Amino acid sequence: MKSQITNALSDFFFEYETPRQVLVRNRRVGVVCRLIQLGVLAYIIGWVFIYEKGYQSSDTAVSSVFSKMKGVGYTNVTGTERIWDVADYVFPPQGDSSFVVMTNYIITEGQKMGNCPELPGKHNCSSDADCEGGSFKRTGHGQMTGKCVNTTKTCEVLAWCPVEDDNNIPDPPLLMSAENYTLFIKNSVTFPLFEVTRSNLVEGIDNNYISKCLYDQEDSPLCPIFKLGDIVKMSGFNFETIAKVGGAIGIVIDWTCNLDFNVKHCKPMYNFHGLYGNPDEKDKARASVGYNFRFAKHYMEDKVQQRTLLKVFGIRIDIIVQSLARKFDIIPTLTAIGSGVGIFGVATVVCDLVLLYLLPKREFYKNMKFKYTDTQTQVKHSL
C-alpha cells in the first residue's frame, strides 16, 4: 500500500500527460479547419479588439450641468405693451439641467376668492338640482355652491373669480421673439476610475471666443452657446408650432473618450432630440399635445388678496449627459486573448465531427484517433 501511494504521488508530480495527436491529410477537413480558425481570428481582431475595444477598461462619468438663458421678449396684447426678461420666462430660474422657456400664455388678471359661475361646458345646469352643493368636478374650478346661474346656465362655484377661460390659445404665439433667445451650457464631467476631469469649455474656448461664437454643427461644434430657434430646428420641430402649445426637447452631451490618446482629444458632442410637442410631425399622443403648466402671482389690493394667473405654454429643455471613457488595461486584454484562444477549439470539435461521423473513411479515422483496450485481456495477462 505504501509503495502504491508513493508511486501515485511520484506520477502526479513528476509525469506530464499530453493528448495524442493524429495528422490527417484530407483537403476538405483541412480547408474547413482553416476557415473556422480564420473566422474566429477575424472575430477576435475585428469585433473583440477593434469594435468592442476588448483591450480597454471603461468608466462612466459623474457630471454636473449649469445653464443660463439670455434674451428679451416683447408682447403687445390689446394695446398693452410688455417686456419679458429672463426672470419672467424661465422656470425654474436656478439654471438647472431641466427648465422651461415660456413661448405662449393665457393670462387671467384680478382674480379673488368668491362665488362665480363656471365656464359653459364645465358643469351645465337647468336648475339648482343639477348643482350638488359642496361637491367638486374634476375638470371644474372650485366647489359648487348648489346654485344654478340662469344667465350662463352653469353651476356657481366657490373659486378664484373670474375663472380662467383657456379655450382659445393665442395663435400666433405671443412670444415668437423667444426664437432669438440664447442658451449657455456649462458642463463638467469626471471619470473616477481614470482620475480625469473635463469641461465642455475645452482648450481654445475663452471669454473672447464665448462672447462671439454661436453653436453650429459644422463651423462651431464646440461653442457652448445655442440659439433657441436653432435647437428647435435641429431637433426636427417647427418653432411656431411648438411655441404655440409647448413641447419638450432633449439636448444630449456625449462624452465618448479614448484616453489612450492625449486627454485634450476628449471633447463633447451635442445632439438634439424632439421628445414631444408637434402633433402634425412627431407627437403621437394626440390626447394631450404640448406642454403647459400654471402659476400665480399673489398680491394685496384694498386689503383683499388677489392674484394674476398665468397658464404657461413653453419649451421644456432637458440636458442629458451620457459618457463613456476607455483606456488600455492589461487585465481585460489578457481576458480577451484567453477567450479567443479557447474559441479556437471550436475548429477542432467541428473537424472531429466531420472526420468521425461524415466522411466515408470514418471507421479508419476512429481507429487512428482512439486506442481501444480490452479489460478482460489485461486481467488474464496479469494472472
Report on the structure:
- By secondary structure, this protein is an alpha+beta fold.
- Helix content is 27%, strand content 34%.
- It contains ten helices and 15 strands.
- It has helices spanning 2-14, 27-51, 86-89, 207-210, 228-234, 239-245, 330-343, 345-357, 362-369, 375-382; strands at residues 56-59, 62-70, 73-77, 80-84, 90-91, 98-117, 143-149, 154-161, 182-191, 196-199, 225-227, 247-258, 269-276, 292-301, 304-328.
- The strands form three sheets. Strands 1, 5, 6, 7, 8, 12, 13, 14 and 15 form a nine-stranded mixed sheet that branches. Strands 2, 9, 10 and 11 form a four-stranded antiparallel sheet that branches.
- Strand 5 (90-91) and strand 6 (98-117) form a beta hairpin.
- Helix 2 (27-51) runs antiparallel to helix 7 (330-343) and helix 8 packs across helix 9 (362-369).
Distance between the termini: 20 Å
Shape: elongated
- Our Rg estimate from Cα atoms comes to 38 Å
Q: Give the helix proportion (percent range).
A: 25-40%
Percentage of residues in strands: 25-35%
In DSSP terms (H or I, runs of 4 or more residues), the helix count works out at 10
Oligomer: single chain
| Class of secondary structure makeup | alpha+beta
Note poorly predicted spans: none
The overall pLDDT average reads 86
H/E topology pattern: HHEEEEHEEEEEEHEHHEEEEHHHH
Per DSSP E runs of 2 or more residues, the count of β-strands stands at 15
Main pleated sheet? 9 strands, mixed
Transmembrane segments: 29-50, 336-359
Glycosylation sites: 180
Subunit structure: Functional P2XRs are organized as homomeric and heteromeric trimers. Forms heterodimer with P2RX2. Forms heterodimer with P2RX4. Forms heterodimer with P2RX5.
Organism: Dicentrarchus labrax (European seabass)
